[in-house]
Structures are given as structure tokens and as C-alpha cells.
Amino acid sequence: MEKQQLLERIETLETRLAYAEYTVEQLNEEVTLQGRELDKMRQLVHLLADKFKAMQPTQIASMAEETPPPHY
């Protein structure tokens, strides 16, 4: 293999490596963003669950518990 071909192959490999590094950086940023969003969603779910648990039971009976009106 002559020197020029070897240099071209090295240049091609360096270009591919640079592109791969860029892609990895972009993916890492996206994963980091998604992790932050997931943390926020978890907090919201916990907040909603706590609010739901803290709700006072209603004094109104459900439709299944209601007695039918006298004309039935």
C-alpha cells in the first residue's frame, strides 16, 4: 500500500471518528434532557398522588349506592 492511500484511509477514519464523537455528544445531551423531564414527571405524579390521597371523601353516594326513587 502506498503512502498516499494510507494517508487517505487515515483521513477517512479520522472523519468517521469525528462524526461518531459528535453523534455521541448529541445523544448524551438528549438522554440528559429526557432524564430531567422524567424527574419532573415523577415529581408531578407524586404530587398528584399525594393530593389525591389527601382529598376528603365526599358525602354524596355513588350511583351504585343510591336507592332508586319511589316510583321505580
Automatic annotation (TrEMBL):
Gene3D superfamilies hit by this protein: 1.20.5.300
Q: Does the keyword Coiled coil apply?
A: yes
Q: Which domain of life is it from?
A: Bacteria
Identify the InterPro entries for this entry: SlyX
The UniProt keywords, alphabetically, are:
Coiled coil
Keyword Coiled coil listed: yes
Q: Which residues form a coiled coil?
A: 10-44
Family assignment from sequence similarity = Belongs to the SlyX family.
**Which HAMAP family does the UniProt record give?**
SlyX (MF_00715)
* Name of protein: Protein SlyX homolog
UniProt lineage: Bacteria, Pseudomonadati, Pseudomonadota, Gammaproteobacteria, Aeromonadales
